[in-house]
């Protein structure tokens, strides 16, 4: 793990996210649930915007990818076929001294709780056990009887819901290979060493797409998706120098993968570059496993070539929470403001991601300004998320919006009643323009598209 040139802003972000209503610890009043988080009013907008952008680019703008929303609970055989029952395990070691639990294969990323300058096992007092394998799937029971026959799992990835529906979607939509199926949904993993805020959690959302292709054409599709997905992250405003590919070498490849690249983002500090998305060539592993375990043929019939085959799959799998964190880290900055003692904190989110697109302020509470501002805010709300704020100095109101990433602030002043114009101030450049009140909606809309 190499330290990043970018500062570690995680503690500041955790505090901002709680203070401003982005992200709260789950069940906080009971002391919290380990590595499970709730999205507050601004966080839910931010994550919804991210998911919407993914859905638009992967499903709506393409005619070769269909959408799906499969159930979280699946037939238990699914997870035998996928290899998760036998192989979705991490090696776990316990420390008999501090009672800490660590992933044996990631000891270098962990810190000894008693001596944080050392990794577990390096401190004289450490007494690590031999590694034992630990399955990451959450088990539960279907129906009233808690016996092994009714054991089911919370899905650890959304992908399997796509594989088992491959023919349903292909036939109902009359799709021809190559085509893809995309879905967004919750996944659950009983991670041994979760942490770093919403980076690694036990309940999270994935945005996954499986692209079914004819064997032999797989690597060309793989290369195209690899490039497309990197371009998507850049289109969200993630800085190019904070993004890089990481190729999985033979020993690192998952059991299903013929080739794999991660897209890594530099989270700053000691966390540094970490995976936010995986692009995998899964071959026909999944379809052939499901075919074998279900006893149902999952072959595709190519009418033109008059042949049947099991397609290969190129998968793109990105974490909605982890990419939300990347956008927050990427956008967070502290700036000095000329002529002011106090600087400003800015969340430089891409306007398409920003939870609030515009904030409307009356400059004063006189001359009908609040009424005009309320009317304008109500009109803007019909098109995008808009805030109205009439409290505190105008400078304070700007700071409040900068800190949550609002790209545009619109002020009604004493002239507005006469000329029907307002001042729009842009978050990053601080530039101010005076525009007609009835053009604000269109003006903002043009600027919040990714
Ligand atoms: N279907 C393939 C698959 O699930 P993965 O690399 O295990 O691949 C894909 O996960 C993405 O899901 C990761 O790149 C990451 O963004 C997200 N992810 C995985 N585990 C996570 C966790 N515990 N917390 C948050 N996000 C996670």
What are the defining features of this structure?
single chain; about 450 residues; alpha+beta; 5-stranded mixed β-sheet; about 30% helix; about 25% strand; binds glycyl-adenosine-5'-phosphate
What features would you describe in this structure?
The protein has helices at 10-19, 41-60, 77-81, 84-87, 159-163, 166-172, 218-235, 285-294, 320-331, 369-381, 394-404, 416-419, 440-447, and strands at 23-25, 37-39, 65-67, 89-94, 101-103, 132-135, 139-141, 151-153, 179-188, 203-213, 243-247, 259-266, 273-283, 300-302, 307-309, 312-319, 332-335, 344-347, 358-362, 386-388, 408-412, 421-426, 432-436. The chain is α+β, with helices and mostly antiparallel strands. The chain is globular and about 75 Å long. The two termini are 33 Å apart. The structure holds glycyl-adenosine-5'-phosphate.
Termini Cα gap: 33 Å
Fraction in beta strands: 25-35%
Q: How many strands?
A: 23
Count of alpha and pi helical runs = 13
Major sheet: 7 strands, mixed
Which small-molecule species are bound to the chains here?
glycyl-adenosine-5'-phosphate
- Assembly status: single chain
Question: Any chance you could write out the topology, listing elements then pairs?
Answer:
Elements: H1 10-19, E1 23-25, E2 37-39, H2 41-60, E3 65-67, H3 77-81, H4 84-87, E4 89-94, E5 101-103, E6 132-135, E7 139-141, E8 151-153, H5 159-163, H6 166-172, E9 179-188, E10 203-213, H7 218-235, E11 243-247, E12 259-266, E13 273-283, H8 285-294, E14 300-302, E15 307-309, E16 312-319, H9 320-331, E17 332-335, E18 344-347, E19 358-362, H10 369-381, E20 386-388, H11 394-404, E21 408-412, H12 416-419, E22 421-426, E23 432-436, H13 440-447
Parallel strand pairs: 3-9, 19-20, 19-21
Antiparallel strand pairs: 1-2, 4-5, 4-6, 7-8, 9-10, 10-16, 11-12, 12-13, 13-16, 14-15, 17-18, 21-22, 22-23
Helix pairs in contact: 2-9
